[in-house]
């Protein structure tokens, strides 16, 4: 039988973990079973005060779990505030909110969600594309408003097969999108930092050239200084008036005001967007457009991927704390 | 130089063609270039009067083009009214509006649209399924109503990969749906009149058994007396509360009141429907359901398939009139 002292001691014996993400009950329980969770959002403290308190802990934290998407930025100031930190896990695939150079300089390992979300994001990209081409959402509004019996046949959409789809970024997600669209008879082109020898698709070193040759552009790259506004006015111009943009990357991969202008003027034909530059704000002009399909950054939101994320997070933390190789390293240690 | 008499005579020299379908200008021009078009919808006459006038023509029609879906039924009465008829072309894939036994008995050949629509319908089925699972349309309404900044993250959807998809009817369309869903990592089961040796998917001779083992049922069969209400109360029960129905076949393949009841009570999880029992009427209860995706029978409506249909129609008519084999025969002659 455990003594009362041992019972009180047990929680503090767990290694501390900084948590910068809201997680569901099962995920939270899995973390608290293994770690002394220092929960930023539950604390209600401003970030500097929260970090200072963590750093002053007798057993200061060596690991942090950070939400993807940039609500909390792991930059030099963050790392300075908790010098004990040696591992940062991002619960997103993108790590644009983590200063990797600063982490490398200080010997802080970084891991991300790996391929947990890749298939869901690829599936969502395909769904957005078919929806725009085939007017699924728009025709559904027609049904829900009771217009079908009044107006009769809905206007024609466009076939997916034989469309030339230019994918920007042929990583995990881009490759899965390509695989899916091949099954629909699409012709796949791509742009990425370098040509990949292992794929049969035509490579375009330049995004504007890719856009000129494509009916559809799918943005599937990560966000960094080279890919910010990779879809700009010139690329939209090259895509042309029958062209469609699908964005499941980051909002800032596309110059949003230019996109809105091109849609308004009919300089491109339509768009399927899961991400926006100033989420959760969506440009008001888009809300009335029938040729735009918009979802609230849900490409990763499935219960299956959420449970996979929990496993991947715990797996990486356990690897870090036991000195084993990380499962999904971005910066190994 | 042609004489005035020859000019007047020329149109009547074209073979007469009964037309029971609204067609676009290009299609109409292609028909009128080759045939003396007797246009039912343009005539404004009731069907019996229209048929009687056609039969009384000095050069009575031997061929008819009939819209798919049953607006005009080619039954014994129709065939009796125009005994000169020897060929009926249906502009749909389904021929449930044509009495094939009566046609066979009278030596009337029948052709349909063949595979013109197959890929578009398969694409649409996939789109409906992803939409229901991933809440694409529902989350879009959330965005368009301005709720994203107010309510934050949208509830989780479900992953497509690893779902067991039971396809009812593994013809052209069903096979194309299977091929597409395999690329998403789905497990394909099917029911059809007989097992197909050439496919690797698990066969269920009984639809209720198929439903018991499936997460999703996709209705992709034609409509006939055996498939009317093939999805009935027992099948919905077997599919169960996490199950999803997708229907791109015919509305009457599903017992619609039972489907509505199962959706209302949460006895199944959702539905993606392009067809309804009493089109263009849609059950009012469905209009407020967020877990139902409804499109107005648009699965075949692309400009590409419309132009393919024109070619297939003309091709079959030319084959008939020149005594060559039909391109896409249902009942050869």
TrEMBL record, chains A, B:
Keywords of this entry: NAD, NADP, Oxidoreductase
Residue ranges of domain D-isomer specific 2-hydroxyacid dehydrogenase catalytic in the record: 63-330
Domain D-isomer specific 2-hydroxyacid dehydrogenase NAD-binding stretches: 127-299
GO molecular function: glyoxylate reductase (NADPH) activity; hydroxypyruvate reductase [NAD(P)H] activity; NAD binding
SUPFAM superfamilies from the UniProt entry: Formate/glycerate dehydrogenase catalytic domain-like, NAD(P)-binding Rossmann-fold domains
Family according to the record: Belongs to the D-isomer specific 2-hydroxyacid dehydrogenase family.
Protein name, entry field: Uncharacterized protein
